[in-house]
Every structure is written in structure tokens, then in C-alpha cells.
Write a structure and sequence with these properties.
The chain is about 15% helix and about 35% strand. It has about 425 residues and is α+β, with helices and mostly antiparallel strands. The protein has a single domain, classed as Neuraminidase (6 Propeller). Strands 18, 19, 20, 21 and 22 form a five-stranded antiparallel sheet that branches. Helix 4 packs antiparallel against helix 5. The structure holds 2-acetamido-2-deoxy-beta-D-glucopyranose (NAG) (3 copies). One 2-acetamido-2-deoxy-beta-D-glucopyranose binds next to loops. The site of one 2-acetamido-2-deoxy-beta-D-glucopyranose has 14 residues, from strand 6 and strand 10. It holds the Pfam family Str_synth. InterPro entries: 6-blade_b-propeller_TolB-like (IPR011042), Strictosidine_synth_cons-reg (IPR018119). Belongs to the strictosidine synthase family.
Length: about 425
């Protein structure tokens, strides 16, 4: 009898707790409506598992953390790392290029350090960098001059562009860029897994220094890539396991469609494969037996609201203490709770890179099944090898290609590659 009473009392308390958390106006402030994501493509045919990415080399092991994106210029690879720096690799060492954040003690102070994500050169050798906390910048890598293009503090159509993520620059200098959320910063990126989509694809005009929204309410928009003749721009919508296309020219100008969906995981950045198609790394794998967490709960908005508020409630005491007694331990805790890095181990161990053709059909897939690569956000082909970036890894992955590719550097705005292509 006493036992049943005990159980009933606990159930009663849990219910009250659930109701209070979902009904009270608690942070984080986001919208919650039901949505669904269509079932993943099966892992067969061009998606059949293979081990082509096994035995990856680890470059700069433990010297680098989170080389998320790459850009190549004058035969040198540039990347952005934890601590907020943009660096280039010269003679096997890392050389400082730029930093937009403030001095900080370590990666757990990411919001102070800054976190460069997207990098892209234009045809004049200006490096565009998207820093998740500080906005989008243009850096002249020759003179070191830095110009701010987008500020995360200035709302666009009433919403702040938080988690500025990826960029691509057209020939005329127009920049297409994504920010992944309007509700949370990268530090609390996990929160965005629970809310409705609040990210956007935008178009920045260098003549007016303003941005126009092309697509909104997106589920974590990420990699942005212009097609070769700039007739459309692709944007991966990470949490929807799909890539959207926005037309810039022709009859469909201004309209959008789905380039590909049902991807077996969460797509991150996009790059050209050098053959008219695209590379798509899946930063987290998912399949019928291992669905992504946000796909499992997408149809239950009240549960999503409860879970994310619970997470925020767990973080709150640490933030409170941090405000009055800033110290190492609460900094580590507030960094850890809600950061993507804390959940990178969920999901199947497979790492997958897809190759799509010019129309979005899956041509080929490469997999790593031995764990030598994980959480890959970007792949580039450079000097007969593939280089793999990641938001978390403490190395740059590399796999040598058997045959050197015809064009060794596939960055269309790069001086050297255009020169090479003339031969
Ligand atoms: C890189 O190393 C080579 C050979 O050791 C040297 O000739 C070259 O000057 C170095 N380049 C830089 C930028 O340090
Ligand atoms: C996406 O990939 C391109 C290269 O195709 C790179 O320039 C850009 O920095 C990457 N962006 C992100 C956010 O990874
Ligand atoms: C462009 O606009 C941003 C606001 O989004 C501002 O911070 C920046 O200073 C402006 N840049 C120039 C060159 O005017």
C-alpha cells in the first residue's frame, strides 16, 4: 500500500513539474509546432556502405581544434579553429591570419573567443569569414584590413542573425549567406534541435551594405554554395536532412525547390566536386534504425518545449553563479550544456560523404566505418588528396586519392586554379 502511494505521489509531482515547465513563460524563447521529415533513403545502391574513407590520416593531431571549413588561396589552405582564429597552413605549420573575437582563456569561452565557420575567397583575394558569434567579415589577406559586413546584433526583418554560418560570393561581389538560428547562439546550439526552424538564407549587397532575406524559418540552414554559372544557390537545411535550391536567374528566378531530401543523416557544408556535381558531408549519420533525435520528436511540440526548457533549467544555476562569481568550473559547465560537442557521440558511428550530380541525384557515397573520421562538416580536394574538416575534431583528416584529379584545386575564385585550368 505504502509503495503504491509513494509511486502515485511521484507521478503526481512529475506531472505538476511537466505542466509548470511547459506552461510558464520560461526560456529559451522559441516556437514549437509539429513538423515531419520524410523517411531516409535506404543504404543501398549508390548509398551502399563501403570503407573508402577508412584509415584516414590525422594532420596537426592535437595542435588544432575544430577546423570546420576550408578555403584555398595561392596554394595554401585556410581554416578557422576553436579559440577564434583563422589560420593558414604554411610548410606544415599554422600561421595566424585573423581573429574577430576577444582574448580568451580557451574554447569553453567560445562566445568571447569567436568561432569562425564559413570561409570563402572572392576573385580579388578577399577572404570572407563568417564568425558564429561576431558576424560576417571581409579580410584582405595581403594587408590584414578587416571590414565588417554583417553584425549579429542588428536585426534583419526584426530578427537577429545568430549563428552566422556559411557564405558564398558571386562574381559581382554579391554574397549569399546563412545564419542557422534566430533563437540561440552556437554555445546553446542543441536548443535549436527542439524548436521550430528559425534560420535564414540571405543575400548581401556590397553597394548598400545590407542583406535581404531569401528563405526563412529554415531548420538549421548550413552550407551555402552557388552553382557554377550562378543560376541558383544551394543551401543545406541540416535538421530536415535536405538541400534546398533558390533560383537566381531564368524563369524560376526568386522561387525555391527541394534539390534533394531524405538524406541518410544531417548534411553540413556543400562543395563542388570538380566534375559539375557536389560533395555533401553528413555531420551526423542517420538511418531507419538510428533516426536523428530531432526527427523522432518533431511531431511532439509540447514534449520538445518541455525538453528544451528542462535543459535550460539545468544550465541556469551555472549561469547564475557565473554572473556573480565568474570561474573556470561554471564556464566549463555552461559551455558543455547545450553545446553540439556534448552530443556528437549520439547517432551511428558511420561517417558518410555523398556526391550528388548537378540535379541532386546521389551518384556515389564514401563511408568511414573505422572511426578514423567523425563528424565531418566539410571536404575539399587539394593536391591529390581529400581533406576533412569538422567542428569538433582535434585534427584535419586526409585521404590520398589514387589518381591525381584533373584540376587539383577546386575553388573557382582562386587565382591559381583558374591559371591551372587554362593549361
Ligand atoms: C617552406 O619550406 C621551404 C623548404 O624548406 C622553403 O624554401 C620556403 O621558404 C618555406 N616557405 C615559407 C613560407 O616559410
Ligand atoms: C563550405 O565550403 C566552402 C568550400 O566549398 C568553404 O569556402 C566554406 O567556408 C564552407 N563553409 C562552412 C560553414 O563550412
Ligand atoms: C555594414 O553593416 C553592418 C551592420 O550589419 C555594420 O556593423 C558595418 O559596420 C557596416 N559596414 C560598413 C563597411 O559600413
Amino acid at each position: 500500500m505504502g509503495f503504491i502511494k509513494f509511486i502515485c505521489a511521484r507521478i503526481f509531482e512529475a506531472t505538476i513539474c511537466f505542466i509548470l515547465i511547459t506552461v510558464l513563460p520560461l526560456p529559451p524563447y522559441m516556437e514549437f509546432t509539429a513538423y515531419s521529415v520524410p523517411p531516409y533513403m535506404p543504404l543501398e545502391g549508390t548509398l551502399e556502405l563501403n570503407d573508402r574513407l577508412n584509415n584516414a590520416e590525422h594532420l596537426f593531431a592535437d595542435l588544432i581544434k575544430g577546423p570546420e571549413a576550408f578555403a584555398v588561396y595561392n596554394g595554401e589552405i585556410y581554416t578557422g579553429i576553436h579559440g577564434g582564429e583563422v589560420v593558414k597552413i604554411v610548410n606544415n605549420s599554422l600561421v595566424h591570419v585573423a581573429k574577430f573575437g576577444k582574448p580568451c582563456d580557451g574554447f569553453w569561452e567560445e562566445s568571447i573567443c569567436g568561432r569562425p565557420l564559413g570561409l570563402r575567397f572572392d576573385k580579388h583575394g578577399n577572404l570572407y569569414v563568417s564568425d558564429a558569434y561576431y558576424g560576417v567579415f571581409k579580410v584582405n589577406v595581403g594587408t590584414g584590413l578587416v571590414t565588417k559586413l554583417v553584425s549579429p546584433d542588428i536585426p534583419i526583418n526584426g530578427k537577429k542573425p545568430l549563428i552566422t554560418n556559411s557564405i558564398d560570393v558571386a562574381h559581382d561581389g554579391t554574397m549569399y549567406w546563412s545564419h542557422s538560428s534566430s533563437d540561440a547562439t552556437l554555445q546553446d546550439g542543441v536548443y535549436t534541435l527542439f524548436g521550430d526552424g528559425s534560420g535564414r538564407l540571405l543575400k548581401y549587397s556590397p553597394t548598400t551594405n545590407t542583406s535581404e532575406v531569401l528563405l526563412d524559418k529554415m531548420l538549421f540552414p548550413n552550407g551555402v554554395l552557388l552553382s557554377d554559372n550562378e543560376d541558383f544557390v544551394l543551401v543545406s537545411e541540416t535538421y530536415a536532412s535536405r538541400i534546398r535550391r533558390y533560383y537566381l536567374k531564368g524563369e524560376k528566378k526568386g522561387s525555391t525547390d527541394i534539390f534533394v531530401d531524405k538524406l541518410p543523416g544531417l548534411p553540413d557544408n556543400l562543395s563542388h566536386d570538380g566534375k559539375g556535381g557536389y560533395f555533401v558531408p553528413l555531420v551526423m549519420a542517420a538511418d531507419k534504425d538510428h533516426p536523428a533525435i530531432n526527427h523522432i520528436i518533431s511531431g511532439y511540440p509540447i514534449l520538445r518545449k518541455f525538453l528544451v526548457r528542462l535543459l535550460a533549467l539545468v544550465e541556469m544555476p551555472f549561469q547564475f553563479i557565473e554572473r556573480f562569481y565568474p570561474n573556470y568550473y561554471t564556464k566549463r559547465a555552461t559551455h558543455w550544456i547545450g553545446h553540439f560537442e556534448s552530443v556528437q557521440f549520439v547517432g551511428p558511428k558511420r561517417t558518410t560523404i555523398l556526391r550528388l550530380d548537378k540535379d541532386g541525384k546521389v551518384l556515389d557515397s564514401m563511408h568511414c566505418l573505422d572511426g578514423t573520421l567523425s563528424s565531418i562538416s566539410e571536404v575539399i580536394e587539394f593536391e591529390d588528396a581529400l581533406y576533412f574538416g569538422s567542428p569538433f575534431n582535434s585534427y584535419i583528416g586526409r585521404i590520398k586519392l589514387e589518381k591525381p584529379p584533373r584540376i587539383s584545386i577546386r575553388v573557382k575564385t582562386n587565382k591559381e586554379s583558374t591559371a591551372e585550368m587554362k593549361y
